[in-house]
UniProtKB/TrEMBL annotation:
Protein species of origin: Parasitella parasitica
Residues annotated as catalytic: Y50 (proton donor)
Keyword Transmembrane applies: no
Spans traversing the lipid bilayer: none
Listed name of the protein: NADP-dependent oxidoreductase domain-containing protein
Amino acid sequence: MNQQHLNLNRTNDKMPIIGYGCWKVEDNPEQVIYTAIKNGYRLIDGAAVYNNEIGVGRGIKRAIKEGIVKRQDLFGIYNENIELWNNYHNKAHVRAAIDRTLKDMELDYVDLYIIHFPVPLKYVDPAVEYPGPWLIDGKVELEKSPMHELWAEMENLVDLGLAHNIGISNFNAQLIMDLLTYANYKPATLQIELHPYLQQTSLVQWVQEQGIQVTAYSSFGPSSYTVFSESAKTATPLLEHDVIKAIASKHEKTPAQVLLRWSIEKNVAVIPKSMSEERIRSNLDVFSFKLDDNDHQEIKKLDENLRFNSLFAYNIRIPLFN
C-alpha cells in the first residue's frame, strides 16, 4: 500500500498520510517547520497548547515566500492538526479561539480544525492566560458546555470558511456514536494515541467503517512521555525493541520507518516529530518498502493496551479512556 493521501469525507480533500507533528517543538519552531516543508512535508499538525503557533506560522510563511510551496499545497491542522483547546468549548468562545490561531499563524483558514480533548474546562480569558490551564487552584473545573453545542459551532466555522474540515481527538466510540446522531457534518478525522503497545484495532476499524479517517499520534510509543508517565519510564522504547529492530534490519530501514509504515499500512495517518533534519527526511521515506505478514504478526504480539497519554500521568483525575 503506497497510498500517500487519505480522502476526507464531505470535501474529498486529500490529507497527506504522513505529516510533521509540532508537539515539543520548542527551540526555533520557525526553522524546524521551514526545514520540514523544505524536505517534503505537506501536513503540519499543531495546537494552541503547544505554545509555538507563532513560530510555526512563520515557518510556513517563509516556505511560501521562498516559493517552496503554495498555501494550497499545505494541509495544515491546528488543534493538533489544528486543535481547539479545552477552555474554549463553550459556544461563545469557539470563534474567538480559531481567530486567535489564525492571527498567530498568519493564516486565512485551516484545512482541518479538531477538538483536542472531549473535556469542557472552565473558560479562562486569554488575556489572563493563553492557552488556558488544565487546573485552576490545583483542581479540574469543568463547565456546562455540551458537545452538541460545541459541534454546531465547529460546523459554523466550516460555513464561514475558517476551517475546511473538522474533526476530533481522544474521543471513544460511545462519544463518537452520540456525536453522529446530531452532526450535520461528520467528523473528517479522529486522532488517537496509536502504536504497537496500544493498537486499538477494534476502534480503528469501526471508526474507518463510519467514513472517518484515523490519525495516529505517538507512533514511537513511550519516548515522549518519560517525564510524565511511570509506565513510559519502564517500557522498552519501541525504537530499541528487539522485534522492531529485527524487522528494520530485514528491510534495511530504521525502526522509526518500520513503526510509521505499520500505521500507514492500516490506512492510518501519522505525524512524527524530530528536530534532526536527517531524521525529518528519513521519517518521510516510508513508501519504498512493505511489511510482510510475518512482520505484522510479530508486531501484533506487542499489544499490551499500554497508554502513555493518560490524563492521570499529568495528575488530572479524569478516567477519559476507561
